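Handout for the seminar on molecular recognition.
Each group receives one record of this type.
Step one: identify the two inputs.
Step two: read the structure output and locate the region that could contact magnesium ion.
Step three: write two sentences on what you found, then compare them with the reference statements printed after the record.
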Amino acid sequence: MKDLFVLPDYVKTALAVCEANGHEAYLVGGCVRDLLRGVIPADYDIAVSCPPEATEAAFRGFRVIETGMKHGTVTVVIDGHNLELTTFRVDGTYRDGRHPDEVTFAGRLEDDLSRRDFTINAMAYRPGCGVTDLFGGRDDLKKRIVRCVGDPDVRFTEDALRILRALRFSSALDFDIDPGTAEAVLRQKDRLAAVSAERKFVELKKLFAGNRAESLLVTFRPVFELTVAPLKKLTEEQYLSAAKAAGKLRDPATALAALLCRLPEEDTEEACRALKTDNAFLRRACLLRAHAHGTFETKGQARVFLGANGKEALAALNDLRAALTGRPDPVTRAVLDETTVYPTSLRELAVNGRDLEEIGVKGPALGRVLNALLSSAAEGEVENEREALLTAALKLQN
Ligand code: ATP
Ligand code: MG
């Protein structure tokens, strides 16, 4: 059977080492979903049939980190890349609404896939064997639907973090939530109390960074009130307009400032403390909230803000004010433009040949694509920034 996907060499090596030692190894979870969507996975998770000690033994000669032996997870380092290999697992009963009481190693891939949260995240891929899809994940990917594996009420009762994960995948992937799953989100929302602030914050950030924040904020208001308590104080009208502004902003701290900008400034700090955000996030959200309603009358005022808080903060404030008022501010824009530094040589470009090779740009195309990226960045058509350049590189290659 012809291989379905092009995989990076270090991933192929890891799979081959497992197989050579007599163990089954599959790519699982988010990377299979992303490969099927035609998106480069952020990372590759591997599930293996053997216990963690056997994984370690198979990778002697490589650097191995004992990440979580109790949970079956070993990290191996290949060509400078970290890869997590986890033994097929079944989760035991859940008494605390968040963590399984015990984790058992399963002999079978099927068991490992059925403990996963959503159908689109519960597929496996093994080169030569194709995709294992027991719950209709491919179909849901095609239909662009987030749906729990199994009974959603049971799955949210086992682990309430999945409630927020359902919303975050809907936003990040721009997918609908299956009606049965969406109803269970609202029915089981109070179980979020069992979830740590840090884990809620991780999901919330990804949700704000995605495409659907506005409609999710509106449909699932009671869920958001359980994660950002001051939202309860907004009237319906205030809430809808705050959600609309937040939905236009992809940066999570800026989106939170937009959501809370009709409330006293202290509420932004309180919300950040309750979510146990990192300090940089807290400072950014509070700074933006404090300046949300002002305007810079002169370039000098914007330059002073820039000097005190940096370019990213000024750009975020500009986005926030535009989202709240619906009008871009030419004064701030002009000051931001003064700060743009264009690359003048390949050395100043934010990606190099190795970065491009990793996303599959190889051989004679490499030099051509690098030079085309330099021209675009020098013209200001694409930002001299890693993610933007890699996306442009993929387009140039095709
Ligand atoms: P991303 O690309 O954002 O990292 P992902 O699908 O890789 O998305 P992770 O949070 O990294 O998401 O989790 C990896 C995989 O582990 C998921 O695809 C899913 O199969 C499984 N998983 C993670 N968290 C849970 C959970 N709380 N309950 C059940 N399965 C989970
Ligand atoms: Mg992941």
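Reference statements: Residues 228-339 form one domain. The chain has 21 helices and eleven strands.
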